[in-house]
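quick one, two chains, predict together pls
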Amino acid sequence: MSKNQNDFVKEITNIDDDFARWYTDIVIKAELADYTDTKGCIAIRPYGYAIWENIQEYTDKKFKETGIQNTYFPVLIPENLLNKEKDHIEGFAPEVAWVTQAGENNLEERLCIRPTSETIISTLYSKWLTSWKDLPFLYNQWCNVLRWEKETKPFLRSREFLWQEGHTIHETAEEAKERTLQMLEVYADVSEKLLAIPVIKGKKTETEKFAGADETYTIESMMHDGKALQAGTSHYFGQNFSKPFDIKFQNREGKTEYAYQTSFGSSTRLIGSLIMAHGDNRGLKLPPRVAPIQVVVVPIAMHKEGVKEKAEELANNLKEKFRVQLDDRDQYSPGYKFNHWEMKGVPLRIELGPRDIENGKCILARRDNQEKIEVELCEVTTKVNEVLEKIQESMFNACLERMNEKTTIAHNMDEFKSSMDENQGFVKSMWCGSAECEEKIREITGAKSRCMPFEQENLGDTCVCCGKHANKMVVWGRQY
Amino acid sequence: MSKNQNDFVKEITNIDDDFARWYTDIVIKAELADYTDTKGCIAIRPYGYAIWENIQEYTDKKFKETGIQNTYFPVLIPENLLNKEKDHIEGFAPEVAWVTQAGENNLEERLCIRPTSETIISTLYSKWLTSWKDLPFLYNQWCNVLRWEKETKPFLRSREFLWQEGHTIHETAEEAKERTLQMLEVYADVSEKLLAIPVIKGKKTETEKFAGADETYTIESMMHDGKALQAGTSHYFGQNFSKPFDIKFQNREGKTEYAYQTSFGSSTRLIGSLIMAHGDNRGLKLPPRVAPIQVVVVPIAMHKEGVKEKAEELANNLKEKFRVQLDDRDQYSPGYKFNHWEMKGVPLRIELGPRDIENGKCILARRDNQEKIEVELCEVTTKVNEVLEKIQESMFNACLERMNEKTTIAHNMDEFKSSMDENQGFVKSMWCGSAECEEKIREITGAKSRCMPFEQENLGDTCVCCGKHANKMVVWGRQY
């Protein structure tokens, strides 16, 4: 490693010394986002936003394939609307920002900036719905929301964040429940196929479900340090909103009925999960499918005749199939450039120098495992494609392996506590279903219930906490 | 016209009786948007939002071709930042909404919801910029903004609206000015090529320019009733923001210099321009390139054997090339469906009945001029393509013709006033350059200066208002 390289790496905190600082170092150094004069709110820089655009494009396409349409509802919600569903307002009131003045005037009624849009959307669903023939409404919006968090962290917990929120209403409870699960599958697909992060799919406990929901489903993933990240949630509301908001329709029997409702959301927090699931001491590490730049071409000994031109030709050819950047900046050395693009997590670097050109070859350098591969220039497109697919796959497998390694089974609280302290991963255990045991587990181990996975395993029939009869297997973990 | 059709058309106000009411009728009946419980803010429904998505996709691609990258900056701006540029705060303060409370607490400093983002973005540009080597920054964001308008109208003047705002900084004034004009060309392209609405490109007068800008450029289009709509603006700031916000860099000579800045914006108001430029008494009329549905296939005598299947086959074939909707709903008559899709402005309808199928033909019905064309089923794809292109072109030409017809030349205020009263179109005249004459013209005729067009004509050398020496030709018009 050259001096240059060492200097560069020193600029970020070691990942195993202080993961939280490493994380914010990466956010800043990889130019994903920055702090702003608006406390608790970040600015998403072009490189970070390009990741978000790729996530949006992929998710939006999946949504539309299931019939979802995009819409836009007001960012401001009158106070009386927010108050209509009891559990909902209790959940959100403490973290809502209020507009009370406009121009020189005080407003008659406070307006909150949406923390989520169930209430305002429900008023319009009530207006638009007449008959079962109108159903379902399968609407989504990509927008900003605001939650006045006390402790913030770029992407993971920001007062303002970007997300999509889907809101659907249906003729029957069954259809709504099906939609809830279908959307969870989309989220699992986004995380696993696009972001290369394996997830556990399951149902939230009563304590952890969304304010106002009957059922909340979640995908949970594990980060580098073993902590859990909730990467997307999908809620079944039953008629909890349709009754107070009067969303009713004439059903097939000619009778008036309240609609069955769902909502589901995923956010820029996914960028945080990308950083924390894949990153290392050299910086960000992006899976090829979501990477804004998939391949960077770095010419070596650029002053030598023909090198710059050949590198440009190579980059241009690859641009037909991949997202490619040519780094032919004069003022920086190849070593500096290597580090720069490693920090930015570009999955594949191509090095091309005078000797390579002479031999009709170039070097592919993988970001994920530092492997270098010499390939013939004439077959570079095929090889790049192969290697990118391999990178995507092995990044997923590395995460999966870590999750498996750091997941243990606990039959009692001693096992639970020692495993959580040593490992800080996931613990699987049986649970009786009581909120008291959940609370006690949190106090003792710092772990919360992540979910009751769809794939239940039988680990006995007694609760890990109280020892009473238990028939639910829960995955527990400390969280972001 | 069947009874059915008459009923449907009666549901909207006649366009020549009350254009303003006709407009809001179309917004509601074509299901573009709806009023909400948040006063002055609309909900954009799927059909309206799909138009916006097409505008976004087209514009975003053009932007990116010129090197622009997307970003995201906070929606909340601390009061002290908004106050830093004097003209800017004077322009925006009366229409800004203020957040003063969060959860149970009063904030120490008020935060405004962005009416535009020059101030918050400038603080970050100041942080990120060091050397001329970093320049230019060519950033844009797609987001919501809020301006507390007293009188609102869906899409045209809504308290909250969606837009893009581009913000760039440059090494030299020349480069920044070039960018300002380049972006205006993108807006002209969007309006003319995508929306089929011709524009006049020009520079705003001092009175009409953006709060804080040195120069504002605009594209102005003419609506059905002859009034003007400003469809996109591009601003050159010089160093007006870079000085108070300390956006400086080391220039090529090693000296510290303030950057040269621009901004440019276009919004969901473009949807309003589509409605008002093209619509008629049958409803919305969309140019094919921006229409969410380009072709609707309506089977006739759907109960007859094979009709439904053949219509489906036809629709599926066309879907490979066009955005196609098959309307095979059992509960509605063909007449009802014709009206429904005409109201929604779908450019082309294909009718297919048992006799057509027997003859291997179908009927194409143009929305723009009601023309019906019989075509062989075997060449329907080619024909649809041809007809859609023709529709796009003739919709543009129809608007251009109207703009030319309703544009007159005035040499004195009598000519000006009588032309504006008879015509309510654009008036071209010479102008001395004084704000007093502008104000007087507005008082007498209700018209404001739209712009000083790039294509200047010599209409004499005396001001239409004061008769003094004048060397600027201005286009005037009443506005939305």
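The mean pLDDT of chain B is 95.
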